[in-house]
Amino acid sequence: MADEELEALRQQRMAELQGKSADPSGDPSQQEAKQREAEIRNTILAQVLDQAARARLSNLALVKPDKAKAVESYLIQMARFGQLAGKVSEQGLIEILEKVSQQTEKKTTVKFNRRKVLDSDEEDDY
User: Where is this region: Disordered (predicted)?
Assistant: First the structure.
C-alpha cells in the first residue's frame, strides 16, 4: 500500500518537473530538434575525446559554458574535416583550450588622464 502511494507521488513529481522544464511557448518539434542536436554533439564528442578529456570539458562547461561550447564546436569541426588522427587526450584538449583562449582573449587597456590642478602642495606658492 505504501509502495503504491510512493510510486504515485513519484509519478506526480516527475510530471511536475517535466512540466516546469518544458518551455510553454516553445514548439515541441523545436525541442526535439534541440535534443537531437545535443545527442549528435555528444556522440561526436564521445568518439573524438577520451574519458579524461571529456571530464575536463564537462568541468569547463560548468564554469565557463560559452568557452566550452566554443571548444566543442572547434572539436566537431575538426572531426568533420578529418583533422583529428585519433582520440584527443587530456593534454591535447589543454592545447586546444589554450588556442581558443588566445583567439578569444580580450585585451584591456587602462588610460590615465591626469588633470593639472591649480592647487599644488609646494611651499613656494605661499
Answer: 14-37
